[in-house]
Amino acid sequence: MYEAHATVIGTVITHPVRRDLSNGEQMLSFRMASNARRFDARSGEWTDNGTLYLSVTCWRRLVEGVDQSLHWGDPVIAYGQLRSNEYRGKDGALRRDLEMRAIAVGPDLARCSATVVRRSDGMRASPDAVASITAADSGPARSPDAEPIIGVPEQVDA
């Protein structure tokens, strides 16, 4: 079992891909990037200090929520178990990839806003109950025809 747990704050840099496995389970994966920035007191400006790239895999109940909520370009916070995979590239060079088996994933509310739509245990939110979110979280990185980050009911009758 993986022992190193970490929280990574970054941006989704690929479209999340959902897969049905032969054993009946589903998984979803995407790549994210986390930019390290620091304040340079001499220049008075923020400077980039490298980028961490990692693959995130989601399993079980997390698949549905991430699939409905996050898309390419969205600000994200991911928490999970880290591991490093070694493999040989097509050129024969030894490469390493950092992977996170996610326990929790969500939007970074410091960089966007979201409305929570709760699902009943194990149930997918019905498309009729999910509408669009306000444009407050739409940023320049999102494509104009992208789906909302998280849907909200249009009207709730009391």
TrEMBL record:
Pfam family, one: SSB
Organism of provenance: Nocardia lasii
Location of the region described as Disordered in the Swiss-Prot/TrEMBL record: 128-158
Alphabetized UniProt keyword annotations: DNA-binding
Gene Ontology MF term list: DNA binding
Matching Gene3D superfamilies: Nucleic acid-binding proteins
Xref: InterPro entries: NA-bd_OB-fold, Primosome_PriB/ssb
Descriptive protein name: Single-stranded DNA-binding protein
